[in-house]
Amino acid sequence: HSLLWRFFFFISGCLFSLTRGRFFSPASRTASGSCGGLTGKVDRFGGVTVNLAEVGLPADVSESLFSRLLQESLSQWKAEGKVAVWLRVPISLSRCAAAASTHGFTFHHAAHDQAVLALWLGDGESRLPGFATHQIGVAGAVVDESNGKVLVVQDRNKTKNAWKFPGGLSDPGENIGATAVREVLEETGVRSEFRSLLSIRQQHNHPGAFGMSDMYIICRLRPLTYDINFCTQECLRCEWLGLAELAKTDNTTPITSRVAKLLLHGLEQGFDKIDLTMEELPAVYSGMFYQLYHRQLPPTPKS
Amino acid sequence: HSLLWRFFFFISGCLFSLTRGRFFSPASRTASGSCGGLTGKVDRFGGVTVNLAEVGLPADVSESLFSRLLQESLSQWKAEGKVAVWLRVPISLSRCAAAASTHGFTFHHAAHDQAVLALWLGDGESRLPGFATHQIGVAGAVVDESNGKVLVVQDRNKTKNAWKFPGGLSDPGENIGATAVREVLEETGVRSEFRSLLSIRQQHNHPGAFGMSDMYIICRLRPLTYDINFCTQECLRCEWLGLAELAKTDNTTPITSRVAKLLLHGLEQGFDKIDLTMEELPAVYSGMFYQLYHRQLPPTPKS
């Protein structure tokens, strides 16, 4: 339910024309009204979205004036049985966010030059969808199959100099494999290509994620170059280390040690034993593509 | 680098005392100054964090007054070679966010009753870490091994009534397996337990994620009860469907069909062929735990 709501919220925000259908017209009439209330767009779930950049507020509108406008509109929306109100607030009109908070609005999210506030008007607990909860960190285990060595680094900024796989946070919109290849190149100077996804770690209340959740993914990469030219800002050391040694040593993190054992097993029994392979498929609702990871299916699955 | 920065930002925000060490004292002196500038805390990366709830601003501070205060402080911080400024702005003082935007500040993130703004003062492009980029959606494939059937639903709100696995978005701080079990129970009335992780899909610019990225994870669950009592608000139909039939039918989504084939393969060859198993391990920097998913290692790994 909430997913669909997000979809409609996004549509009404980004594809204005799409919302001028049967939902919009009556809503805009009642929402704008004749008494100077705010004009909103109504979604199919009974929520109203008001973009303060579009409703013709004076640039110097005061908190008290906006508070009165909002109060009028809220009374109407409640009378109409609306279940939620979304406010898109340009940063230059931020004082309106303070005014809205006196009516119970809170921040849903904010980025760049816009904040989005929300207020639940329906019965019971809010059923409004939340915002993004996870950051994605990706590490690349670059394995040289010719000698069973893997590329590892020691972080300059960590107190304990434990061997780990090079990696870092995904940029917005960046695919998992692309992050692994980019971070390995930036930290070690080694060029590589994505082979598979090996391991996923989920961690909550993460200090490194502003208290949000962290998803840490380790990929298997194949080296395209072998000469190390590591980033001295980030790394203290960088080496091609034998997998057997990395699997044994105490001078590493638990997850690195675990993945070293996994890679050693793959080296001996075949990486198909440990890999999740990736395939790119078209998304249903758009021309966009998504990447799907799972265990490889046999060429002709028995079915 | 950015990850560490986030760590320090979090620490300085949540564990104030930790920041009163050698970084804080000189910074607070220079940052507060004698001319009524703002008092900030300096992190090890040369960034300053100012919490407007803690610097004793008058509740009715005007945008113009705050703008002057900020201008003075910015001049000092630039002179001191600070590379970034973080502003924590309570929603009631939102007008200060508008004032800050005239000095180049933008929203980094916002939630509940606080917004966090940031400004990069260093050379070149901003190296400030971003905020959470992904929402996590989880579906549960509940497989009855006794008859090779799986629990599927048809969404009431989708136009095309395709069979899919019950699922939904993770709540903040909720583990992947817990989301799958909860959503299956809420949508179908069937109780189940987590067995493994089967598939991961990554999708960007997702309409259902307010334009952010979406990670959709399918888990394999074992049924604990079998009677269906599905949520008529969310679902149009709910059935135990044969995996072979689900793998064949066109009346489903590409990813559901793919996972049906995967499950059929697992049913015939053993689920160990398709599973990523989960283990809970202690985090290094705290008493917290994280969940790690990867292919099962043989009882005694050759190493």
UniProtKB/TrEMBL annotation, chains A, B:
Range of residues in the leader sequence: 1-21
One Pfam family in the UniProt entry: NUDIX
Transmembrane regions: none
The UniProt record lists the keyword Cell membrane: no
Chief place of localization: cytoplasm
Highest taxon of source: Eukaryota
Enzyme Commission (EC) number: 3.6.1.-
Matches recorded under CDD domains: NUDIX_ASFGF2_Nudt6
InterPro entries in UniProt: NUDIX_hydrolase-like_dom_sf, Nudix_hydrolase6-like, NUDIX_hydrolase_CS, NUDIX_hydrolase_dom, Pre-Nudix
One Gene Ontology molecular-function label: NADH pyrophosphatase activity
Enzyme class: hydrolase
Residues covered by the Nudix hydrolase domain: 133-265
Subcellular location: Cytoplasm; Nucleus; Mitochondrion
Keywords: Cytoplasm, Hydrolase, Mitochondrion, Nucleus, Signal
Keyword RNA-binding: no
Family (UniProt): Belongs to the Nudix hydrolase family.
Its biological purpose: May contribute to the regulation of cell proliferation.
Protein name: Nucleoside diphosphate-linked moiety X motif 6
Organism expressing this protein natively: Echeneis naucrates
Gene: nudt6
